[in-house]
What does this fold into?
Amino acid sequence: MSVEPAVGGDLEARLARVAADVGDAVRAAGRRPDEVTTIVVTKFHPAELVWRLYDLGVRDVGENRHQEAQVKAADLSGLEGLRWHFVGQLQSKKARQARRYAAAVHSLDRASVVDALAADDGALVDGFVQVNLTDDPGRGGVAPADVEALAERIVSTPGLRLRGVMAVAPLDEPARPAFARLRDISDRVRSIAPEAGDISAGMSGDFAQAVAEGATHLRIGTAITGMRPPAR
It folds into this structure.
């Protein structure tokens, strides 16, 4: 499929507004701008939108459905420097395909996915341990008590580089205390891998709280891309 960049809409304004708000949050936290990467989540949006974002300077985009991500990555393979972050639940049987396009997988939550991503091909995929910050075992992520074991498995897996931890704030409590717990878990991971200090946390509605608690990667969708089209 051929994709051409498009002009128009409020995309540029939304992107600028979020960038300004992230900058304000970074300064309020006494941190440096280069400590925080904004990943624009483009779930359900067409490849054309990613092209437009690229044209506006975006180099980090996120997807949470493998089939959709795979198609977009193939369509936009000519965009030099574009980094795809997989942020959704990844099936073990799709992991080998995902590592062909994903620069990072933010949702490592079980040993079977880690093992499926193993490869001795000289390439490294960045991996984040997804942590479940709730008491609901049905939510995505590994229980806090099991984080170290999964982190150790990632460290020993060829083709993966442990970058840190990831979480989604619970719906039934303020975001910042949850992100503070994630920060404590991040410290535990760094006792295993001192270089794995990144924290993937914060979305459109709570990224300022995430930045205040040390987030290094923000996963922002609607605030930049606008409302998503219906799922297909």
About this structure: The radius of gyration is 17 Å.
